[in-house]
Amino acid sequence: MAVMDEFKEERANLKNKPLRKKIGYFWMYYKWYVIVGVVAVAAIAGTAYSIANQKADALFGVTLNGMPTQNEEAFLNGFMEYAGIDTEEYTFNVNASLHMSSARDKSSMSAAEFIMVYTIAGDMDFMTADPWAYTHYMYNDIFADLSTLMDEETLQALEGKILYSDAAVIKEIQALQSDGKSADDVSLPNPFHPEEMKEPVPVGIDISNCEAFMDAYYYQNGIAYIGIISSSDRKEVAVEFIEYLLGK
Predict the structure, then answer these.
(1) In sequence order, what are the residues at sequence separation of 6 or more whose Cβ sits closer than 8 angstroms to the Cβ of residue 18?
(2) Beta strands 225-228 and 200-206: pairing type?
(3) Fewest beta carbons within 10 Å, which of 70, 105, 148, 228?
(4) Residue 41 and residue 36: Cα distance in Å, rounded?
(5) pLDDT tens by residue, 58-102
(6) What is the C-alpha separation between 239 and 221, in angstroms, rounded?
(7) Which residues contact 154 (CB under 8 A, 6 or more apart)?
(8) Best CA proximity match to 123, nearest among 80, 94, 98, 147
């Protein structure tokens, strides 16, 4: 007798069996389908729940080459309260795990890739970094011109703490890169001396004296700068964050 004929005959005989026998038969032949189905449904339900309950970012930043301390959470919550942001709907996330050096090792490459992806996507709103890393990204032209986001009075009050990039040098670097040449030998001006630049643009602020920030993140040598990412859609919130820092 063919296997399918035997199977049909067995199912026909099963019709007259008690419920317990029918359940046992079903479980013997279909238990793995049931298990896989239950697991799949649970996975889909879990994913749907996570998506439905995921909070939107009110602000997202990177503390490049900085290490979080035990005060980080209180610091971030302090800004949410300061800005009046609804914590039931929004969150403030900071990636404090990225590290980069001139060695171009695996850690540096991973950090560069993360920053590039989030910058292109417009999902990163600000960056803090040590002097070397900040200068590197100043001349990769990712920071917004602060003169378009902050009033002149505020910028004047920050004299001595504003970092400038030279747009003329950025153009020179980009021209070399377009020709497939190295820009490593291009001389970079002192970011605190815009008078020595051809086309100075304010792109950062020295927050080394911001006690609340430096208590929340550790930077070697105690020096950190902050800038707003030019591709961000939440620049106004980022400006408010800087105001929060400066008030601390």
Answers:
(1) none
(2) antiparallel
(3) 70
(4) 9
(5) 999 999 999 999 999 999 999 999 999 999 999 999 999 999 998
(6) 26
(7) none
(8) 94
232 in Cβ contact with 124 (< 8 Å): yes
Assessment of whether the complete model's pTM goes beyond 0.90: no
Per-residue tokens: 80: 């949410």
- Taking CA atoms, 231 is separated from 68, 73, 123, 220, in Å, by 25, 26, 8, 28
Q: Where are the alpha helices (DSSP H) in the chain?
A: 3-14, 19-53, 72-83, 106-121, 131-138, 152-157, 167-178, 211-216, 235-246
DSSP 93: E
Query: Structure tokens of 242?
Result: 């800087």
Judging by DSSP bridges, how do beta strands 56-63 and 90-95 pair with one another?
Answer: parallel
The two tokens of residue 169 are: 């040098």
> Which pLDDT belongs to residue 104?
81
Q: Which of 161, 188, 159 is nearest to 172 (CA)?
A: 188
Indicate the DSSP class of residue 97. Answer: -
Q: Are strands 225-228 and 126-129 parallel, antiparallel or unpaired?
A: antiparallel
